[in-house]
Amino acid sequence: MSLLAEKTQRPGLAPHTDSVATFVPDQSRAERTRSYAVADFPMPTGREEDWRFTPVDRIRPLLKDEATGLCLDWSETLPAGVRLGTMSVADWQSSGAPAPADRAAAVAAAHSGGVAVLDIPNDAELTEPVRLTLTGDDGQLVHGHVLIRAGRFSKATVVVAHAGHAAYSELVTISAGDGAHLTVVSLQEWDDRSIHLGQHDVVVGRDAQVKHIAVTLGGAIVRLNTNATYAGPGGSFEAYGVYFADAGQHLEHRLFVDHAVPHCTSNVEYKGALQGDSARTVWVGDVLIRAAAEGTDTYELNRNLLLTDGARADSIPNLEIETGEIAGAGHASATGRFDDQQLFYLMARGIPEAEARRLVVRGFFAAVVSRIGVPEVIGHLMSAIDAELEASVAVAS
């Protein structure tokens, strides 16, 4: 199955909408509920627009309004000057942080038991990444909440890695102060039994630059919602993603970029590969350009590569534009099978088929992975992708 859609908006043209209203009549993306109260989000049935691709029955334990009192195992590497502390849920709410956007996030916030706060000082320029490693054990059901605050004019990279066996629901709040340059890498390398639901809220300060990179290779079900807003003009948000789904895995990534401030930019690029019967991925990208957001420049792109029969990728890019006074807006999506011509080209030059397949898929992912900017993380991920490709060769043979 192939899907290709692209739209472009230029200054002076009438407002254009290619929004979620296509699927839910008369509903703007801006009208969806955001609340700190779990009761404001009914238990989903799977028929709602936000949940229609998700195997709701399999994640229902994480949607119950109940605390477990459990935590994942934590380890951290903190460069000099970086502090890791805690904050109460009440203090986090009163800070004006973005509220949860679905029931899973509301439950995670309400029952996390407190917020882990990572503070990067003003003007700090970190030469080494901050690392947080969260590890599950014995399939424990855990709610978590992390707040990452990058001070004014700071420059930092934060790597948050998830591994082990757990049913984990999290809320991650990311705040970049004015002029900050922040990269946040979220690694999902769970074992094949794990479930992970996450909402990542990014607030981009005036003239700040934020990169959010999601890499999802493990887990039975992973569903990540990444939402970006702007606290002042001149902000830049880049969202990159890599995912590789095997048989039986459901990997779902949803993004919402809310342009409500003038002269900001956003760029979204996600790439995924799928192999094996019942491998399933979902990508939904929503961009809203409000009437006040003149001068916006935005683009979103999703590509999916089907390596075997029986895999399915759903890809839905949406644009909702309330003003024609923008620099540009567009989106594109494509899903297709392995390019036999590229394979033939390499094999005709004496490269064995298995190696040729590996080179083509590595090239497909490499442009996104290289944007992480942390050499040891890049090397680790490309090795993990190679391991996935070895499995694909075994499936194909």
From TrEMBL:
It holds the Pfam family SUFBD_core. Residues 137-364 form the SUF system FeS cluster assembly SufBD core domain. InterPro entries: Fe-S_cluster_assembly_SufBD, SUF_FeS_clus_asmbl_SufBD_core, SUF_FeS_clus_asmbl_SufBD_sf, SUF_FeS_clus_asmbl_SufD. PANTHER family: PROTEIN ABCI7, CHLOROPLASTIC. Belongs to the iron-sulfur cluster assembly SufBD family. It comes from the Bacteria. NCBIfam families: sufD (TIGR01981). This is SUF system FeS cluster assembly SufBD core domain-containing protein. SUPFAM superfamilies: Stabilizer of iron transporter SufD (SSF101960). GO terms for biological process: iron-sulfur cluster assembly.
